[in-house]
Amino acid sequence: MTSVQVEEHHDEHGSNGAAGAGAAGDNEGYQRGLGARQIQMIAIGGAIGTGLFLGAGKAIHKAGPSLILAYAIAGLVIFFIMRALGELLMYRPVSGSFSEYAREFVGPFFGFVTGWTYWLFWVVTGITEVTAAAQYMQYWTHDSIPQWGYALIFTVILYGANLISVKLFGELEFWFSMVKVTAIIGMILICAGILTIGFSDAGDTASVSHLWDNGGFFPNGIGSTLMTLQIVMFAFLAVELVGVTAGESKDPKKTLPKAINTVPWRIAVFYVGALIMILSVVPWTSFQPGVSPFVAAFEKMGLGIGAAIVNFVVLTAALSSCNSGMYSTGRMLRDLALNGQGPRFFTKLTKNGLPLVGTTFSAALMLVGVWINYQWPGEAFNYVVSFATISGMWAWIMILVSQINYRRKADRGILPQSTFRAPGAPYTSWFALAFIGMVIVMMGIDKDARISLYCAPIWAAILCVTYLVLKSRNPDAAAFKKREHGGPAVEDGAKLTKD
What we know:
This protein is mostly helical. Helices cover 67% and strands 0% of the residues. It contains 22 helices and no strands.
């Protein structure tokens, strides 16, 4: 389906947004403007953000070289999650993605909770990323402009960029990701040169023995390494964004599996490989919380211009993630509205197929980040990162549970098998769920991360009350209506039969 006018959208779906959702096509009026190279870079760039560039400084300070192992194990879990999502996407690639799958395979209530929680996750993440971007600007300006001022400027600019077209969003993300990928690969090569040739100020002391010197591989104990898992998992948040692009990808059946299968090597290179090289060149004891380990590493090497370049790259990474947040929030609000689980005005599209109202509403809430930066400029990042982690992990939990339930139905012949089956499932999905549960326990133990667990029950209570009110006023909101990929609606649970 091509882009439509706002008025045409209302004519097509009628006055009842929930009913229209059941009959609509998979892209629901969106433009299929995202090509293969853009999807690939969105997938690669989604895992390269402030969690790596900024949050890793705190994690290195806590865990030392053992952080490498934490990223490797967490990366394996992320691959299990992404393959579970890939199986669902190839079964039915729809714009609502995991919210739609939770609605079908766990229940309408869980679809409602997942949609609104993932929307909140990106609003909070947008605040996180714009906070990080404002901090990076202080590297050059030294407080000549307050941190909250940069946060305001970036929020307004990115909002404007998301009002033009999805193709422009994809192009921006392509080049944002290209900058990040090029910079990390370049940094790895520079570190390799220092280790082998010995140039720069760090040349005389650089050695892979830094990985086990200064207290060993676990200098602060295994417990400290486990306590960094919530920082590590935050670094991987947004890898699932490729699922949200399903309704706007030109060829989702082809491009999405390729993007998902890049997960292992990009984690191996951009996280494990980069940390091995950095911590081999500069001892882990040289890094401090709140300081990008990449910037700090180049400063220790005596490459001042390198630090400035890396600071620009991490600024790009933060803005890229915030840009993704602007993109996904409008789509998630529209999916909720199409299913009768959100206000109907969120269903409106512009001529270019953009969810203007949902994006505008979300951007307005992201301005709360400006106030946070004004009130607590030093602690803003730490306040929001924990709540973003628990919100994002809920989406992962729903992906895994949905995939387990889908596989059970597919194996019984109730639903068609996916063309991209997750290897080792459902056992790998159960393992990933157990790992996420362990991370949540670690968050409860960590006093810095515990605030997110205080906020989660409050958010859950708000959603439960809202859903009960919504259900009493609109019973259709509690009824699942499947939106097929390029086909008619199919009743849930209908047994497949041979011709």
